[in-house]
Structures
1.
Amino acid sequence: MTLEVGEGRDEWDSDEDEPTLALADRYGKDGDKTIKNWKVAVEQDRATEDRLMNSVQVYEELASMRQDVDEDTEVTLAYSNVRQDLDQHRQSMHPGYYFVGDNVDMRTKINLGVLMKYEQYNEDMTDICEFLHTLILGHDSTDDWQKNPDKVLSGGDYLTFVIWSQLYNTNSARSQGTLYAARTTLNARNVTQHSSQDFYACSDLVEKVTIAYIVTGGLWYFGMSSLNSVPTKNVYDGPIGDKKEMCAHILFHASEFAKQYCVPDTPLLPEYEYKRPKSLREHETEVHGHPDPLYGNTRVTEITTCVSDDGVHNYTRLMLNLGQLRMNHNDAIRMGDGERIMRINQFLVLFYKACNCPKYAYGILETIAQTKVLLTERMACRLTWNRTVNHRGECDSNHPNDLDLEHCNKVFKDEAHSFRGTFTEKTVSRVRRSALSLQSAYQQLDLFSILPGRLHDSSFQMSKSPLSLLDMDEVRNWISASLVDYKRTHG
């Protein structure tokens, strides 16, 4: 069988659950040691790099002080050799690792195990941090981690329900073009009032409505009554059949439509600093007309009660803004385009801030600050581009790291539930060390190759087809006897 465990089938011939448990222990016994081996390798490689860099610095200082030609040649030769050793070592040294959510560098997934702690309690969160501290480069359980902090990358993609909170209203069933009206028209009963109750159903509805808005907007922009009608506005007057010119025409007008209806109106930050926040509030309200609940209440009332504003048009623009921003973000994730994800994050942080999602806004702002200011160029590059994982190897089959972690958590829970209520600390330890390895082994099970001796379950034998067990002479006699009965019955 392709699931290789030990040698031969001896491990599968034991009684009861012993082979499964032994298999789980064997797969998981070394899983949590990988990160520790990485830690040792990285620390050794960095120590070697520091030693070679010190040697390079020493020879550079000697070369600057030498006046004798022969001695200078020897120093130059030694410096060249050390420099070459340093370059070769950097080519082969361990690239290092960093943490993403509950895991580490997603290029190689490491099972960090399960801690019997609750994150909502401060003392348990302290224990979790102390556990992770032992895995940080240059540190262990014996040092004072409060005095010698080491910068660790942390990141993650944040899910939001901004579209739902801004555009979904159960009182708009008869308002054509709204999300709730679309839910009613499509009879999408799995779409819930709160998107957290069934996120994927709500996400599918937003996707469909966004596409419908784009198609409808294109028809309106080109003055078309249907997909088969002829454009009456922004008509192409170039040579028919020239694909380059026709494509340029479509792209130009698509860009114009996006600028007019899809780009959010973002106010500019002040160009100078104010020592007093009150002065800034007064300036924003009086000069730029920005509503402020703490200053200029009269102006706020005038803006919010303005009857000349087109609410339907505003809804359309906001739907296109948020819907296409969401589609762009999802497409960037599928393609593994880290730079595009970070550019979109600059819009998301403003939307989160405006829509009363302060935790999401703060988290994404921190991620942007890490890539732009706080981290070295190398660490910022890794944080930018290591945001997705790809198990299928195709160009558009990436998905977020946090979603992959949720899949891992589901594997752990499924394995834990298989113990039918016998959920002890030993059970948790066994499952957390073996779940992912067993899942990987199950996925590699070869169902179509012929390997003699394999069984799904030793309690029964399985033939290729039950028809192979038929005695065809007996079948022929049975058919003949049955025909005689039919003749007698039907006369």
Note: The longest helix spans residues 34-65.
2.
Amino acid sequence: MADNERKGAMTERDDDVDEAVAAFHDLRQTVERFGAHISAEMTIVRKGVELAFEEFEKFQETPGDGENLLRIAEFLVGMNQRIDLIARSPILKNGPDYFVRAFERGGEGMMATAVQQSELDNREFRRHLLELRHLTRDARERRLQNIYLWFVGAIGLVVGMVAALIVAPSL
């Protein structure tokens, strides 16, 4: 019985390790996916800046008209607003180290939660195991009590029959 409990504990530990490996793998994939998103945003920013310089160069080639200057000013105001929005982006402000730390904290929290849940499940399993042991023991005791009851009943029947045989002729 002790060997079965040890084997059960070992399989639970193996399951816990498998869950931890799966959680770490999921965390790693998430970090890689966010890295790809950061790279894509940086590419978009770079293309936007290149486009702005190309447009700016086009407007510089045609000197003189007030209407062109107005369009250039409007374009630059719009580009300035876009660049401000991009500059306020948390990805550019915080940098990749910030997000790596955030993912590490998230992973640690996820692992702590998984461990706590595993411990809760283990406690609940042990509680159910003890309850099952008590129920089994009670069932065995009832079965033994039933055997004793039948045995005493049979002895009582035999004693009653013998007593009836002994007392009946004397009446």
Note: The chain has three helices and no strands.
